[in-house]
Amino acid sequence: MCYDLIAKTNRKEEIQMSLTNPILCLFEITDPNLIVTGISKERCSTNQRIHVVHATLSYQLLKCPHCGHKSLIKNGTHMSHLRLGTLSGGRYEMHLKRQRYQCKDCSKTCGAKTKLVNRNETFTHNIKHQVIVLARDMLTSKEIAKLCGISPSSVQRILNANIHLAYRVKHLPENLCFDEFRSCNHWMSFNCCDAVSHRRIVTLKDRLSKDIIDYFEARFSVQERAQVQSVTIDMNAEYGSFIHRLFPNAATIIDRFHIIQLAGRALDNERTQTIRTIQDKHSRIYHILKSQWRLFHLDEIVKGTRKM
User: Fold this and answer.
1) How far apart are CA 198 and CA 196, in angstroms?
2) How far apart, in whole angstroms, are the C-alpha atoms of residue 108 and residue 67?
3) What is the helix (H) or strand (E) element at residue 177, kind and residue range?
4) Residue among 205, 166, 202 at smallest CA distance from 189
5) How far apart are CA 204 and CA 191, in angstroms?
6) Taking the model in full, what pTM does it have?
């Protein structure tokens, strides 16, 4: 009878280990101390279905990490909820029971560690890798969050922690371009690039004059900034107030696109004012000014060609 009980126990362990290895291989987990005990499906507070992998983490710890004595005893387990990489677009979690240990000498406790996740984090390295791979395909944060089953703010935190931008370029180009763009959460960010090669010099999280001045003054010497010959900007008056301070020898150039855009808006305003003064709504002049507004934005060469 004892032999049958031992044989059944060994068969259960063999079945458990045979199921553990394929499941861990699916998530690219190579920790030999992890043992999968079961798989289930649950629902979270938002009624989203979660695929849960139940596992235990335990190994023999010889010395106390605090005092170094060999007087450790097992002291219960601690449940950790880890986020795994997605397999079919759903949400996968691992409920991991970590073995706790207590030292008889110093009475301090410690827990079993794994390389699956960093300390005090819930996102595994596998799901972080998936986020970075999807970000390289130029997907938005919302699309990545939907595919990986996490929030867009978590996607942004993962990208900010794993993508490190250069501290500064080696040499400032002679011709720079300043502009702003709408970034995350409708915030306006600052962008600086080379006017000739269009190579990015720096991207700041906001467009405040103080932050722009601090960046260039803290990273580039006066001699380096004095080599800049021109800075192309839009109609933003804030840029013109500190360009000479940062680049004493640079000429300020207004981008011709914004000048043409300003002239086009002034022409449209004059056209609409003229339309309002026409009493006959069925006249030829009214219809031309109303519907053929594109003709007033054409170049003189194009107009001359059409007349011919």
Assistant:
1) 6
2) 9
3) strand 175-182
4) 205
5) 6
6) 0.52
Q: Amino acid identity, residue 166?
A: A
Angstrom CA distances, 278 to 77, 272, 286, 288, stand at: 85, 10, 7, 12
Q: Quick one: pLDDT at residue 115? A: 86
For residues 241 and 118, give the distance between their C-alpha atoms in angstroms, rounded to a whole number. Answer: 46
Query: In sequence order, what are the residues at sequence separation of 6 or more whose Cβ sits closer than 8 angstroms to the Cβ of residue 211?
Result: 190, 204, 205
Q: Which residues are CB-neighbours of 166 under 8 A, at least 6 positions away?
A: none
Cα–Cα distance between 93 and 27 in angstroms, integer?
A: 11
Q: Report the alpha-carbon angle 294-300-301, nearest 5.
A: 110
Q: Which is it for strands 109-111 and 175-182: parallel, antiparallel or unpaired?
A: unpaired
Q: Report the amino acid identity of residue 173.
A: P
Instruction: Write 254-257 long-range contacts (CB < 8 A, 24+).
Output: 255/177
Distances (CA, A) of 105 to 65, 229, 278: 12, 70, 98
DSSP 1-45: -HHHHHHHHHHHHHHHHHHHHHHHHHTT---TTEEEEEEEEEE-T
**Distance between first and last Cα of the chain:** 109
Angle 77-82-85 (CA atoms, 0-180°, nearest 5)? 150
**SS3 of 68, please?**
coil
CA 244 to chain centre: 34
Length of the chain: 308
pLDDT at 283: 87
| List of residues 6+ apart from 6 with CB closer than 8 A | none
Extract the residue ranges of the chain whose pLDDT is less than 50: 1-18, 301, 303, 305, 308
Q: What is the pLDDT of residue 224?
A: 92
Give dist(CA 95, CA 24) in Å, integer. 14
Question: Within 10 Å of residue 99's Cβ, how many Cβ atoms?
Answer: 19
CB 188 within 8 A of CB 206: yes
Gap between the Cα atoms of 162 and 152, Å rounded: 16
